Amino acid sequence: MKLAAKILFPLLVLGAAGWLTWWLIETKPEPPQRKKPPVFTRVEATKLTPTHFDVVLETRGVVRPRTETTLIPEVSGRIVEIGKNFREGSFFEEGELLLKIDPLNYETAIVIAQSNLAQARTTLAEEKARSEQALENWKRLGKSGDPGDLVLRKPQLAEMEARVAAAEAEVKRAQRDLERTEIRAPYAGRILEQNVDVGQYVSNGTDLARLYAIDYVEVRLPLTNRQLAFIDLPELYRGNFAEAAAKQEKEAPEVLLEAEIGGEKARWEGRVVRVEGAIDERTRQLFVVAQVDNPYQWKDDGSPPLKIGLFTDALVEGRTLENVFVLPRAAVRAGEEVIVINADNRIQRRQVNPIWSDREHVVIPADEAGLKTGETVCLTPLAYPADGARVLPTIDGVAPPMETPGKRPGGGPPGGGKPAEERQDTTSNAPAPPAATAEKPTEQG
Fold it and tell me: pTM for the full model?
């Protein structure tokens, strides 16, 4: 008995312990289960409203003078004097003395020409006297009829008159050559390049200097065929030049030139004054000419003067597009797609057809681009947008009133079709605004 008790008692203890263990395992309470709140992408969005857009055409060009002249003397001689402004970069006014050639030889030529003129006039007077004397002799001889030209010495008289005219012309030429020893500015301008100085001998054909007019400068600006559709150019037509010129003066597109000089950006205002008569065969672009008046006059904004040869960016005033949607460049994806957000805050990719775009904007016609007034367009670039995915939009700077994308102001679900349990499951874990009460997650078990 003692042996049986020693064997059975441990077995009973082990069995009881095993049963207790099994019972504890089988009757253990299930841990509470929580569903992970869905994560929604926050995006910026805007409601579409038709508006207008002022097109600005971007192009570039090089500043060039209105008139550029190579100064060449018409007489020869040694330079004896130069003007105070005959230096590279100096300004001069119209009629100002630029340089002077030694006039001695030309003053001597005037004296000689005047002497020849006086001699020719004396010879002419003598020949007139001979002609009159020949007529008197003809009458004294009692001859009938009119005397001939040789009798009256008319050929000799005509020769003397021609000599007098030639002598007078020589005097005028000598005076003109003397005047040309003083080379004066043909217009108000600036010296671009000086090639001679005092003491140098020059002759006909010598390049004295290069100079250019300063009343205004021009910039040739290329426009592509696409850009030409958005600008009203001052075209001239044969037969109505006066009317076209008057219209051009009033409606010439404005131009803003920008360039960086010395690390600072400078701006100048101008206007398109004419269109060149041919399209460039290499680039297939049409060049228009912009004019900037008084480019060297001091301005209150401290803008530096325009330099000849400066490469500038140009913003040309284009047409105004009416009844269009204007979106930021980032809102339009590759392939001309936009992301539309519907009433359930679900996204939809939609194809559009922009009529204009620049670095910052994309312009879409409001009546034929597949978008409607009042629709919400996502402005935040999304890497992998899937149709039907939900987002949490901030529309025109107004944050959503509740953190549940499926809800709108008023507390009810959009469309009123989803049960309360499903609405609870879609609650975001982000803190709700004070005006709304965040729902607790459902516990099961």
Answer: 0.67
